[in-house]
Write a structure and sequence with these properties.
- Belongs to the glycosyl hydrolase 130 family.
- One of its GO terms (molecular function) is hydrolase activity, acting on glycosyl bonds.
- It comes from Caulobacter mirabilis.
- About 0% of the residues lie in helices and about 50% in strands.
- The protein is mainly β.
- It has one domain: Tachylectin-2, Chain A (5 Propeller).
- The strands form 7 sheets. Strands 20, 21, 22, 23 and 24 form a 5-stranded antiparallel sheet that branches. It has a 4-stranded antiparallel sheet with strand order 1-27-26-25, with no helix packed on it.
- Strand 22 and strand 23 form a beta hairpin.
């Protein structure tokens, strides 16, 4: 029987928390809420790398009439207590502080990144590199680092990460010369942006990236417009991958009649194909606490990516596959199906996609390249 082309490759039970970076200073017992949303790339050896987001949560988050969050400090990890009467806990991933002039959140877990090396076909875990884990290292990351996206440009690997703190909710950039060891270069987008990812290649000598800025308010389109309004995917350009300027005139926006009109956001780094830049992105349907996440795709002009050549925003390319999580169903904590695609690599006649399944585990899916012709 041939091996499956859609499977879970790494999940919460595969993480050895005795080797977690939190163990050096955090005495409280923890568990893995999820090991998911991996950055994805191919190493010089031909092996594959998943940069797995490990969401590590407290076994006993409530203590002495307070709910506690984990926070990084230069002196080590500490527990931050919030009085229970002052919080709302309606989402297993976070809680909201009540009574202030602004909406304030705190997380029920702290995320760090774990490099997991796979064989060239993505069928087998070769090594789990705890010694190369990426953990918070600056005040703007004190509540964790989330959802890596890895893009190879020229002879280097660029990894964007969402950094979470009370100070900022921003995008940071890491650089690697071998695909495995990453150096923090610092903040590159100072506003809230969950889905910045670099194109895998330059256009007219420039770095390009997808962005998805968020805000407290959005302005309405005209009544006869096709668009629903709200968060959308835009482009930014840079001479050096550090200094970014928005590109005018581009946008992938949610349509009013789409089942995923709540918001859209970047998924995989755009890769150049004979038909244009292939980008996979997510759309969200409003349902339950988290919403339903599905993967869609578009082709952008190879020389002018502001031109959308084709877009498939109706039937999803990928959606949650509940059968895959049956063996770990007792670990599921979301009330809606989620497939969040975060990486793509060339696998000969196929593209190999990496996704987070259910905010719980890492999923790999093979899709023929002919699907995007």
């Amino acid at each position: 029987m041939p091996p499956p082309d859609d499977y879970l490759i790494f999940g919460p039970d595969d993480v050895d928390l005795s080797r977690s970076p939190l163990r050096a200073s955090l005495g409280a017992p923890t568990f893995v809420l999820g090991a998911f949303n991996p950055g994805f790339t191919r190493l010089p050896s031909g092996n594959l790398l998943l940069m797995v987001r490990v969401a590590e949560a407290l076994v006993e988050p409530v203590f002495d009439d307070h709910v506690r969050a984990i926070r990084w400090t230069p002196a080590g990890y500490r527990l931050e207590p919030f009085p229970i009467p002052h919080v709302e806990q309606d989402d297993p991933r976070k809680f909201t502080l009540k009574g202030g002039p602004n909406r304030l959140l705190a997380l029920t877990s702290l995320s760090w990144l774990l490099p997991v090396e796979l064989d060239p076909d993505g069928r087998k875990v070769i090594a789990v590199h705890y010694d190369k884990a990426v953990e918070p290292a600056a005040p703007y990351q004190d509540y964790g680092v989330e959802d890596a996206r890895i893009s190879r440009v020229d002879d280097a690997w660029y990894m964007t990460v969402c950094s979470v703190s009370a100070e900022r909710h921003a995008t940071c950039l890491y650089l690697s010369r071998n695909g495995l060891d990453y150096e923090l270069l610092g903040l590159v987008l100072d506003h809230q942006n969950k889905d910045m990812l670099l194109f895998e290649g330059r256009v007219a000598g420039r770095f390009l990236a997808l962005t998805r800025p968020l805000g407290e308010a959005y302005f309405a389109w005209p009544h006869d417009s096709l668009w629903a309004g709200g968060p959308s995917i835009n482009l930014a350009q840079s001479p050096d991958a550090l200094h970014w300027r928005p590109v005018e005139g581009f946008g992938i926006r949610a349509r009013k009649d789409s089942t995923s009109a709540n918001k859209v956001g970047g998924g995989t780094p755009p890769v150049l194909t004979p038909h244009g830049w292939l980008m996979l992105y997510h759309g969200v349907e409003t349902r339950g606490v988290a919403g339903v996440y599905r993967t869609f795709w578009a082709l952008l002009h190879p020389d002018d990516p502001t031109r959308i050549l084709r877009i498939e925003d109706e039937a999803p390319l990928l959606e949650a596959a509940p059968d895959l999580t049956i063996p770990i169903a007792d670990r599921l904590y979301l009330d809606t199906p989620v497939a969040f695609t975060t990486g793509i690599v060339d696998a000969g006649e196929d593209w190999l996609l990496a996704s987070g399944e259910g905010d719980l585990a890492c999923r790999l899916t093979r899709i023929p390249k002919s699907r995007f012709a």
